[in-house]
Amino acid sequence: MKSTVIFSTKNQNSYAYDTKSKYLFYIHPILNLIWQYALYEKNQIKEIVSQTNHISDADFEYYYQKYLFLQEHGIFSEIDSDRLLTGRVTKDIVEKNLANLNQLVFQVTNDCNLKCKYCCFGDLYNGPEIKTQYMDISTVHSIFSFLIPYWKQRSSLCKNTINIGFYGGEPLLNISLIKDIISYCEQVQERENIGFEYSMTTNATLLPRYIDYLVEHRFNLLISFDGNEYHDSYRVDKNNHSTFQRVFNNIKYVQVRYCEYFKENVYFNSVLTDKSSVEEIHDFIYKNFQKTPLVEPVSTTDLKDSEIANFKQISQEYNEDIELLRERGDFSNIGKEIGRFFYYNLNNSFHHYADLLYKMNSSIYKKVPTGTCLPFWKKMYITSRGDIMVCEKIAMSHIWGHVEPNKVFIDFERIIQQYNMYFDGIRERCQKCYRFDTCPVCIFQLKMEKDKPLCPYSISEDSFKNYLSNMVDILERDHQLFYKFNDLIFA
């Protein structure tokens, strides 16, 4: 596979991008021609260049020497993706991730007072039939007893603050447990010198009843709300009645009663459907609440084959123009993609100091296929029935352990075997993909066939050029976006 590709933007500017070094630079048309005919003799290249360009001998010599300099320093070479994509998951990696875990998410209940049509636990998606369950404090005590010894090993590069997330169903249906968890965290903080902060995803139907407590403990709230009454019409209660007016009034109540808290700690997440557009959702929520919402398409993870027609009927492709991108910034999906481009494709952004050491040695680093997070690198998710997962966004079939009273079992052997089996199953396809080193795809969101992941996103050289062209074209159209997104970290 070529390490360097040359592409053009809509403004007909040419750039070279080198996967090995992660350098992106403007390239002169003469240099482009020299690279295209690099296998020819120097005099032959000069003759070819002269046929289409009025160029002096001195200018040709300058660009030819520049090409040789770049080639000498690894540009325009080949990259051995076969050798690089040989990373493996080991028990040591899993345990180090547990020691540096800084996000723990509790599904305090799988019960919900709504029945949204696109809910990931609803009829569109695969998954076992699970009875309504409410987590109890013994599960929390067990998982803390298991994790605290790991947290005491934390490296100096990792902040000693853990984010405790509350998830559902609707988590406020189990407010008594939430209060017990926070009381317990306060005891742990005093005893172990480990800090905690709290976040929650909520449908806001019960918000006025508990907002005083949430404000007191400085919760970060992510409210699920899709825009105006028409946009929000898939969010219904169990009797199929609209919840819009009730939720709108509840949010307004919080905004008025706790103005500063609302500004600092409340966020919105909206689902994009056939009843809305990104611009319409954004305009409604910003006009009414002065907030920029996250907007996500209906999930495709673990979608039932029998429900594909229904999915297509309610889903909508994410689109926004450059003006809306400016307004939405890092809340924009396109903005996030530009942020990923800066972070993963260029060498000028670092999540923390350890990344600096990693990127300096990236040419010898063996990575795993796909963009899958290594187990427990970002978070741990505990379901209401005590199952241990790495994330709430993946299928319920990927369970890596279980919490019981006074006992936590994480199946390290199964984690290692399963991850490496999936990586082995997809490695050959990844080796041919031009985004193998910056892949955004999670292996656990792909369809499986006989335990082999099926990836529809593999990118050819031409597709990779189009991707790079689209990213740089946006930045050419608005130079300020370069500085805006270069200051953000997307990891």
Descriptive notes:
By secondary structure, the protein is α/β, with parallel strands linked by helices. It folds into 2 domains: 4-79; 91-417, Aldolase class I (TIM Barrel), CATH 3.20.20. Helix content is 42%, strand content 14%. The longest helix has 20 residues, at 412-431. It is globular and about 80 Å long. Helix 17 crosses helix 18. It is built from 18 helices and 15 strands.
Task: Describe this protein with a few key phrases.
491 residues; alpha/beta; TIM Barrel; 2 domains; ten-stranded mixed beta sheet; three-stranded antiparallel beta sheet; 18 helices; 15 strands
What is this structure's SSE topology?
Blueprint: E1 4-8, E2 14-18, E3 23-26, H1 29-36, H2 42-52, H3 57-72, H4 81-84, H5 91-99, E4 103-107, H6 137-151, E5 161-167, H7 175-192, E6 195-202, H8 207-216, E7 220-224, H9 244-257, H10 259-265, E8 266-272, H11 278-289, E9 294-297, H12 308-314, H13 322-328, H14 333-345, H15 353-360, E10 380-382, E11 387-389, E12 401-404, E13 407-410, H16 412-431, E14 447-449, E15 452-454, H17 461-477, H18 479-486
Parallel strand pairs: 4-5, 4-10, 5-6, 6-7, 7-8, 8-9
Antiparallel strand pairs: 1-2, 2-3, 10-11, 11-12, 12-13, 14-15
Strand content: 5-15%
- Determine the number of helices (DSSP H or I, runs of at least 4 residues): 18
CATH topology of the largest domain, which one? TIM Barrel
Low-confidence stretches: 357-364
Structural class of the helices, strands and pairings? alpha/beta
CATH class of the largest domain: Alpha Beta
Query: So, CATH architecture of the largest domain?
Result: Alpha-Beta Barrel
Query: Looking across the biggest beta sheet, what order are the strands in?
Result: 9-8-7-6-5-4-10-11-12-13
What form results from the Cα inertia axes? Answer: globular
Q: Averaged pLDDT, please?
A: 90
CATH homolog superfamily of the largest domain: Aldolase class I
